[in-house]
Amino acid sequence: MYQNINKELAKIFENMGNIYDFLEDKFRALAYHRAAQIVDSLPDDIRNLIQSGDIHHIRGIGSGIEEKIEEYIKTGKIRKYEDLKQLVPPDFLELMEVPGFGPKTLKRIHQEFGISTKEELIKALKDGRVASLKGFGEKKVQNMLKGLELYEKTQKRLLLWEALQIGKMLLEKLKVLKEVKNVELAGSLRRRKETVGDIDILVACEEKDRQKVLDYFTSLEDVKEVIAKGDTKASVMIYEKDRQVDLRVLNPDEWGSGLQYFTGSKEHNVHFRDIAKSKGLKVSEYGVFDVKTGEKIAGKTEEEVYKAVGLQWIPPEMREDRGEIELALEGKMPKLVELSDIKGDLHIHSTWTDGINTIEEIAKFVLKNYKYEYIALTDHSKAVRVAHGLNEEDVLRYMEEIDKINKKLGINFIKKGVEVDILPDGSLDLPDEILSKLDWVVASIHTQFNRDNTDRIIKAMENPYVCVIGHPTGRTFGSREGYQLSEEILKVAKETNTALEINAQPTRMDLPDIWIKKAVEIGVKLVISTDSHSLSNFGYMEIGVSLARRGWAKREDILNTYSWEEIERFKQEKRAKFSIIKR
Q: Does pTM top 0.90 for this prediction?
């Protein structure tokens, strides 16, 4: 099974919370939802914390929850959860994950119509019965159906972060074999697409060792079912997410050509082969060949494969046939931003609002685990009531707390920030008097997603104290498509010296890569942020950088690759622009 059981336990506790919501036991529901959030966010496998006794120091994990964790570790089940599942129709547990299908909504429909299955519920939504209930109506029903459609669409594919965790775990297990010369992810996962279908892995080994590699792979404890197995390929279904994983075995002298071929994209490869053909060459997964002589002229590395056709090597994230081949032919490939370029994280939440770690815990964790020069704490403003957002007095106390912790640390590491809400009319949730005192201001929309928010965002960008627009399209995979951006927003961002965020939360991945590329083209600065709500979230920076690379962003395009002094200059340039306008 999957190496780290935190996700499994978090899922169980979330389901227990949902069941208690269904049973209208609010106290227990909150306790289990909190436990799910805490367990899911732990940076270490919970079994290690149980063994070391450190589990006792984690807030929100009481003796009752700890007993259930230990029960699951020993038996693979939690008896209380098995009992609770009998009190809710089986389909409802899955439906509770769908936007608009909360426990209370499902309970009411169940009580009114005796509905217990997904099929019956969909029928009742479509035939008007649910819409006839007080408090529902046609609009809500349509939103529920749309939410279900989005959810089911997402379930067919893995989010990038999920796929990466599974893919990396399998790579590490394959690297153990001494017969494996090279091993790498391929397909859309290597290109770091936002969502991934099947997981593709390539291995290079000597021909005599192929069978051993394939046998080892298909017998891994993670494998639920062997779908197919041949001389050079095996397909399996793994337990985690019931996902198909395909392994292909290449000869060492085919590694580069095979990796290029199986990375894709299809459009990139077709264009690449057309260019090769025009030069009297043939490209396949086995190598680059001279058509006239049949001589193999390249294949061991990707670099030599591209070079043989007259191109620079192209980073996998760029291989979507969006002009990258033309650049490579001209020798003008950009040097894309790398994870090691990042100097700080500028969107972080603590226990002051909806995060689960204190400011001090966050600072110490980041200093220990990341080579960052700064971080910005950006808890919510008061409009986000569900997150217990900060009012004006809270922000001042928050700033004092950050000063105390910086003094305790002996360095000015934590920058004072806020994620201020952009209200429906485009005004901000905190006055300029407060915003002007802060080091960093993220302005975000958290309401009214189903409208054109162009004017709203533009008005926020015209505030001299707003540094960056957070999660600019408002999308969340599986629940909300978000609102459309416009070229006008990019234009105003450039004019006002306002950055746009690449939010690396796995369910957001916002900006989309197409808009990142457009922003880079016109010179809008970008900020890659994790929007961390727990210590484990800081790892999301990796997929944020991947998104930036898919949008062709270079180090100089990303504001948080700069020193804090350079960021201060960026901020002052914006304020200077607005002071000139006022004069």
A: no
